[in-house]
Amino acid sequence: MKxxxxxxWTEAMLPTVAEFFSPTGPLAHAGGLLFEYRPGQLQMxxxxxxxxxxxxxxxxxxxxxxxxxxxxxxxxxxxxxxxGKRIIISTGTKGLQEQLFYKDVPFLESLxxxxxxxxxxGRSNYLCRQKLYDIKPASLTPDENREYKVLVNWEKKTxxxxxxxxPAFPEKSTLWPxxxxxxxxxxxxxxxxxxxxxxxxxxxRAESSNLVIINHHLFFTDLAIKMKTEDASIxxxxxxxxxxxxxxxxxxxxxxxxxxxxxxxxxxLARDIRQAIVGTARANAIVQAAARMVDRFALLCxxxxxxxxxxxxxxxxxxxxxxxxxETYEGxxxxxxxxxxxxxxxxxxxxxxxxxxxxxxxxxxLRYLLESKEENAVFWVERRLAGPGAQMNVFIxxxxxxxxxxxxxxxxxxxxxxxxxxxxxxxxxxxxxxxxSLGITEADxxxxxxxxxxxxxxxLYVPPDMPDPRDPSFFESAKKQVLELLKISKGRAxxxxxxYELMQKMHAALEGELPYPMLLHGTMTRKELxxxxxxxxxxxxxxxxxxxxxxxVQGEQLSCVIIDRLPFSVPSDPILQARVKAIETxxxxxxxxxxxxxxxxxxxxxxxxxxRSTTDRGILAMLDPRIQHPGYGKMFTESLPPYRVTNxxxxxxTFMSGCAA
Length: 661
Description:
Keywords: ATP-binding, Helicase, Hydrolase, Nucleotide-binding. The protein has 661 residues and is α/β, with parallel strands linked by helices. The protein contains 25 helices and 19 strands.
């Protein structure tokens, strides 16, 4: 999707940054806008402009309500319009990405006129026309047939092919992965629909845009591709990049730079091979080889470490594993080599080149995962259920332990200016953690305080005499506290948990105890849960990690946020273990240098769900007494906004008496 403007912009046509954000500027006179001059927003915008014009890079924490989005959007747009140099804006989620394009960009255009701006997503968000044309409806289930008819009608009128245009389309559709434009099955210029390809059109729009709005996953996927083959880039060249929700960067980069081979991926390749070679002379032999590949990989998975149920474990004994499963492993590789040879010889087969490439890639990645001696990688195994009643998917994975050096050379040394912005980046009012984890050397720093009066708007409750969360008595104590808190707040609450198991246990224990709708994460989609929460009076939502950030519920409907424990990562997590060990090997403290800062940022995100406007009021509750630990507790408390803190539950009743029911 693209918004187009053909204007030749000059200095005289565009307000300066100071003028735009001033009490008498275009922003203040926007029709219908409840404008409030925010000095912090102007200061941030000026620092963003300075970074774009002169450098160095900029790291900025902008508290909720500061107007962070416009503070980087307008100076970026103005700079690009006047210089012709493209700027990439990357967001943490597709939801925020769409908000920028469909809300913030039109707002700026209403003040200044149309611009050349587009947004790009990953290939799996776009329809592949040819795949849709090739589908045989007779092979579909009744649900897939209904989805197929929706897609057929939509394909005739869509200009973008972006799945987001059909919000009613099932989130967990089994048909969509068979018709999306992901690279695995793309045959490029060989495709009969190449001239009308939505992905190609998206790239063409980006090449002529001033601003390109993307998400972090696409940015780092593109970077991972460029690190292997420079010419294979997805994104256009740019002068600068602005990362919003920059606290997500280490996690997303690690994910995108990693390697993963799974039984599902092996099965998908075998299925596509079977479908493609129907009618060829060697079809039967190739089908048998594909089946052997699947069966041998499944047998290989039975020997991998980890429990039968969903789990993540370090794969620390790969050499011993290979000795024990040498024959099975060689069988998988030989099946792949045979398929590669046979498919390479099918010169007239449409899509053969893509299948050959996929087989070759799987062969190389599996060998890396089981044979590599790479020291800056943790090798691990994950078992994951695709859904209720679904088969167990098994993943063999490798994740870089430290991405700092890679990011330093590929981002901070490559772009003229990099701006990292988030409402939660600082720990104890400093950025040493984000600098260290992302490889940032030269950068200006800035903290923009929130415009909210946290002393008046929020009250943080830490119950007295709570046991340590690792104590068996913690659950019963927490249950009593949650029950009392929900009575005081009359529902209208988020109960946020660090454990899916504890969330379910608490929901089951409290269901029926209170006359409020008790919504549970996992019983419907995230979007449906939020809509139900917003429209159900006095609702309570029980959620885990995905509800800790990126959610905006303003007003009385959300008047209480309860967090069960400090959000430390699970100690047994393979990536955490590897990073802690690496830090301690260098003489640092894995706990204080990594675990506490990560948990602090996560806690700031969770508590940040409560106060979203100047009129919001409510209570925050932290049931984990470790937040007052004499050693590391103050790293948390000194990083939070200046909430009033109490250990007395009566203070909550008094405070909430001023909030409408």
